[in-house]
Amino acid sequence: MKKTRPEKNSSEKNSSEKNSSEKNSSEKNSSEKRNSTKKGAVAPPTTEKLHKLLARAGFGSRRELETWIAEGRVTVNGKLATLGDRATLSDKICVDGKNISATRLAGPRVRVLLYNKPVGEICTRSDPEGRPTIFEHLPTLEKGRWIAVGRLDINTSGLLILTSDGELANRLMHPSAQIDREYLVRVMGAVDAETLQRLREGVALDDGMARFTDVGLLHKEESESINRWYCCTLMEGRNREVRRLWESQGLRVSRLKRVRFGPVSLANKLPEGRWQELKPGEMAILYQEAGLPVPPISALTPADKEIMKREQRKPMRSRVEAEKNSGRKPRRTI
4-18 pLDDT, tens per residue? Predict the structure, then answer.
């Protein structure tokens, strides 16, 4: 005979349902309390490396600012900063005793310029000899300062990138970024296939091995001239590296012009001594090349566009005057 389970009486059933309901209610309240506490909690302010904050504010590259911190020029909340310190926008940060506002530390509108440097200008902000500098011809920034991505010597012309973002400048210049630079170079002397192969494989210079990742004749047709134009590319920017590589082979560089830096090329329509501003889409590509997240980038205003048009309509500066400043004899224009 099949046994049946005895049913709970009404009192026991009600008691069980009550306990179950109280348990579920307790768990629900506990969960809501945890969520409420989590939502209501105030998140700690985001900290950043101190030199990174100052670089974004336009004080210079991160490497420069690390030097400033080591020299004792920076304080945070009244205490002398040390390398590796982190800070927030709410901290009181001073450079050379002057308080830096949170608005400036948050960073102004990021801007990137291309400048077609002529021969005869130098890439420093001031010169004891009174020679013209590239910074004399750039538009004024509301906040911060222009930072040059690398340098070109006084006798080298062509593409320079300048930005108000110190972190972007630092990333683009750092050897680990492996960003290629392309140059047009006019070489005086005979260049054979073996010479070009040595330049590709590597040459020992005073500061270590160096090489072109690519090098070749710009124009393949035969020429009787002792000066030939070559296109060469390298992945770093040591001092006068292109010239020294050619000179290591007993050759003389008579003209040198940078025409590309990573994804950015020098536009033919940009006259020497003039600048143009990158558009938001072009800037985004540059940030991606540097391995940085793309920041909010404002579109150029109508006023910005008009200023840039006026700049590019200006006549090219006198090449003769530029070469006088460089100490070289004026040459004919090619």
Answer: 444 445 455 455 554
